[in-house]
Design brief:
This protein is α+β, with helices and mostly antiparallel strands. The protein is 46% helix and 24% strand. The protein has two domains: 143 residues, Jelly Rolls, CATH 2.60.120; 77 residues, Winged helix-like DNA-binding domain superfamily/Winged helix DNA-binding domain (Arc Repressor Mutant, subunit A).
Length: 228
């Protein structure tokens, strides 16, 4: 079990520079959990004392307001980690996490994680890089919402997701996530019906194809013209 964990953790960017003995020690204090689709891992404003590393599956990170309105921040997959902010500052969770597919996760608790931080500066550097990347992504999302009209928001979000999750096909670039219209609406902060109508316009303009909730960008140049 420990050997299998060690092999996997070595592939996770957060731990890739750690030597064999140290990595073995991390593997020994890491627990594995399985979560069914739809499970909530934690909620915003709850205490947080663990780091989560995705072995397989899909997790949504999101925020909600008191009215129940939801803003999706990101989708995380294999080798991604989350929960690091509460691990570092010992404050409450800044967002919620929900499992969108059956998912396996490694969990590393705060006391064990902080010990490893003290002896492995490379982990600190990689966490800072990840936090910086996530802040930049948050800035892009804010800019998208504040400065663009609704078709532009949807178009930019699809292009950004294709850059992150895209897989080349004969048709174009497949966004390799099963996205509902509601989930996309939560990303651009509008109603599901509005997103459905905009996606219909994109299909009519032959910018995208949709098959069983999978979106393929067939003409990125044309789709980009909607971004204003």
């Amino acid at each position: 079990m420990v050997a299998r964990k060690k092999v996997f953790l070595k592939k996770v960017p957060l731990f890739s520079d750690i030597g064999g003995d140290e990595l073995k020690q991390i593997a020994e204090v890491t627990s594995e959990r399985f979560y069914r689709k739809g499970t909530y891992l934690f909620f915003e404003n709850e205490p947080g004392n663990a780091l989560f590393i995705i072995i397989s599956g899909l997790v949504k990170i999101y925020k909600s307001d008191i009215s129940g309105k939801t803003k999706t921040l990101s989708f995380l997959r294999e080798n991604d980690f989350f929960g690091e902010m509460s691990m570092l500052d010992e404050e409450i969770r800044s967002a919620s996490a929900q499992v969108l597919e059956d998912t396996r996760i490694y969990i590393l608790h705060r006391s064990d994680f902080q010990k490893k931080l003290m002896h492995n500066p490379s982990i600190c550097i990689k966490i800072m890089r990840t936090l910086s990347a996530r802040l930049r992504e948050a800035d892009r999302q804010i800019q998208n919402i504040v400065f663009r009209n609704l078709p532009g928001r949807v178009a930019q979000t699809l292009i950004d997701m294709a850059d992150k999750y895209g897989r080349k096909t004969k048709e174009g670039t497949l966004i390799d996530l099963k996205l509902t219209h509601q989930e996309l609406a939560e990303m651009v902060e509008t109603a599901r019906e509005v997103v459905s109508a905009i996606l219909g316009q994109f299909r009519t303009a032959e910018c995208i194809n949709i098959d069983k909730h999978y979106i393929t960008i067939t003409n990125k140049k044309e789709l980009s013209t909607w971004i204003t």
